[in-house]
Request: fold
Amino acid sequence: CFQRYRGKTRAWEGELETSLSATKQIVEFASEKFDGTKENSIVLVSSIASQFIAEEQPVGYHAAKAALIGMVRYYAVMLGPRGIRVNGVSPGTVLKYESKEFYLQNKKLLRLYRDLTPLRRMGTAEEVAQVRPDVLDVPRRATATARLGEHLLEHHREPARRARERADVVV
Reply:
C-alpha cells in the first residue's frame, strides 16, 4: 500500500485517515481475496520518519508512519498463519518529481545525502514504487519479517520466537 495525504487542511486527521484507515481497509479487503493456494504477500510503505524526525513533515505524518510499522507487525502475525506474508519498506529521503528542483538548487544538501547513502545517490520514487513482494521474498524461512516479541499477545509468543529465529530480514 502506498498512499499519502496531500490536503492543505486537517493535516492530522488526513494523515491518519489516508495512511492508516485506508491502509487497514485495503489490507483487510485484499487479504480476504487470497485463497491460500499459493504464497501471498502484502507490502506496506512507511518512511524513515517512523524513527527519525523529518522537520519538513507534520506530526501526523510521523505518527502515521510509525503506526504503519505497527500495522506490519500486527498483520504479519495475524495473516501469517493463512500463508500471507506482510512486509514493510521504510525509505529514507527520496528524490521525487516534486522535489527534484529543490535538490538541484541545494547542491550541498544533495552532496550530503549522496555521502550518507551507500549507493552514493538518492533513491527515487519510482524505485520505491517498484518494490515487489517477490523481491522481499525470504523463502519459507520467515513467516513475518517484522520484529516480534514483547509486544505480542501471550498465545503468539512461541510462534513469534520461532519466526524471529528463522528471519533474515527485520523491518
